[in-house]
Request: fold
Amino acid sequence: MALNNLFTHAQRMCTGTAALTQPVLLSQEVEDEYREVIFRPQFDRYVSIERRQRILDIVAVAAERTEPTETVRECGDAKDDKCLTLAAAGKADVIVSSDVHDLLSMQPWRGISISSPAAHLALL
Reply:
């Protein structure tokens, strides 16, 4: 999936959260990760900084804040354990990820569905 499409999917998912049965979950650790990744210079040529900031603003406003008290260590990529930790703490119905190597290969995880952004949008 092209990076620009990924940002478009993320924006559409966030603006449609009112129709979801479960809110988008966000912890400070996951927000920090989003912020670090989304503002990497390599993305400048694909999506403007302003658009990336708007997406983060939408996520921050629409999300339900959850601060996990336990840490999960079950993923092949330790960075992805943040998502699993948040999903477990927030009792998520679904984890939406484009990480085909680690998270999507764990589908389902502890009874929580793991879906790509495109597949999840198709269900909305």
